[in-house]
Amino acid sequence: MAKITYVEFGGNEHVVDVPNGLTVMEGARDNGIPGIEADCGGACACSTCHVYVDPAWVEKLPHRDAMEEDMLDFAYEPDPVRSRLTCRLKVSDALEGLKVFMPEKQI
Amino acid sequence: MGGIVIVGAGQAGASLAAKLRTLGHDGAITMIGEEAAPPYQRPPLSKGYLLGEMELDRIYLRSSSYWQEQMVTLKLGAQVAAIDRTAKTVRVDAETIPYDQLALTTGSRPHRLPAAVGGDLRGVYTVRTLADIDAMAPEFEAGRKLLIVGGGYIGLEAAAVGAKLGLDVTLIEMAPRILHRVAAPETSDYFRKVHDDHGVKILENTGLDRLTGEARVSGAVLSDGSHIETDFVIVGVGITPATQLAEEAGLAIENGIRTDEFGRTSDPAVWAAGDCASFPHRDGRIRLESVGNAIDQAEVVAANMLGAGKAYQAKPWFWSDQFDVKLQIAGLNTGYDRIVTRPGEGDAVSFWYYRGYTLLALDAMNDARAYMIGKRLIEAGMSPDPAIIADPAADLKPLLRP
Ligand SMILES: Cc1cc2nc3c(=O)[nH]c(=O)nc-3n(C[C@H](O)[C@H](O)[C@H](O)COP(=O)(O)OP(=O)(O)OC[C@H]3O[C@@H](n4cnc5c(N)ncnc54)[C@H](O)[C@@H]3O)c2cc1C
Ligand code: FES
Prior knowledge:
The complex is a heterodimer. Chain A is of the alpha+beta class. Chain A is built from 2 helices and 5 strands; from the N terminus they run ββαβαββ.
């Protein structure tokens, strides 16, 4: 279980407990948090689960693989350092306190 | 006030209901689904879920509390038997439910094999619902023989799962090649090889004469007269849109429930979206069977039910997972006259469909980069010089600048 903060583009914050083993995307989906669309349901096929992670977290997360890298490159206004696909981020105790920011829109 | 009633609690129904709330609609919403499960995703059914890699609670589209919080009344395990358009009601079992506006998101039904060729034998399955998968899952034991009828995406995905789990898989395709209806020969060749490398036996130009067995299937006679043994059979030979309810209610049908560009059917109080709906596209009319279409079209219909007057512009995309290959498709390849091949790194490759110099679509295998660029180009109506596409050294990203 990890407490994760999702910040909508307008600044609205949602703090939720996400069980281990789920993805950060699924945590948003299960709690009805707007701003993460996840059209492909986590198949790494749509890039509509894109977020910017809090700068303090960039180095703590496992690195992006080539597929995520390529999908992100064409997401809406990606940030070379902070952008991630939330369906690639598995929740574990190590993610306690993670904070992610939603982009203005998902492609 | 009857509020909004949605028939079909699948991908499109769920998106429609959720979007109505996001847009601020606060009237009553009732969603009726004949399946027992709350709205879930179908793609994992023939992929991760069948493989046992994705648990049940992860395939639901929303958490169980979400629908309650959003005040969407879910009626599950309840089939709508009739629509009375004059009284503006739908009938479910003994109940009559009134509506102000009705949305039909009834999806599609898989083709089944006729009983005359053994379609009603035990051990013969189709792949559409969670219940279908739960019924067939115990059959997937290493060493058993699986026969797949139909070489489309569903059949090939099921074949990949079977082979991964150690089954002896044979796939028959009546057409000269797998994926005949949906993809270019290049893509067929690519996937034939992938399956071959993993031990799936693919027999093209081979139809099914009949299944054999007493009560339960035990074999099949193929169109070439040969007989093969099998422990169970999966039939993936296409779907038909679920239009019966609409048809009986007298709504116009044209390869699906006919809608205008706003998603409205021939009755102004009734709308349709997803697999079941056919809508205007370019000079004609199409129906799309994909998650992307179900979501986008349902969201446009939700807005239009609230008066937005927004035309639906389809941006077709699709994906498929087989073994370690991720296929991503953008655009519609109908009417293509040539294929431009773009080699990627390692085993990555993409096939670009052109009509003359117009880019129509692409199939990208393990090449998210090519897919994302191609998708953007197609959506922007841009057609790059095929020579650039074919040159693996050329960077495609600058093409996106108009
Ligand atoms: C195994 C499988 C794998 C797939 N893989 C992919 C993929 O990788 N990528 C992709 O883009 N697409 C994929 N698809 C297609 C995609 O799942 C569908 O296009 C999408 O689900 C369509 O959504 P829908 O809401 O129109 O229909 P559905 O999701 O089928 O929902 C319709 C619902 O309506 C219900 N219903 C029908 N009639 C009634 C009635 N009278 N009363 C009450 N309820 C009724 C049905 O039972 C059903 O639950 C796949 C489909 C399947 C079956
Ligand atoms: S949910 Fe589609 S890429 Fe993450």
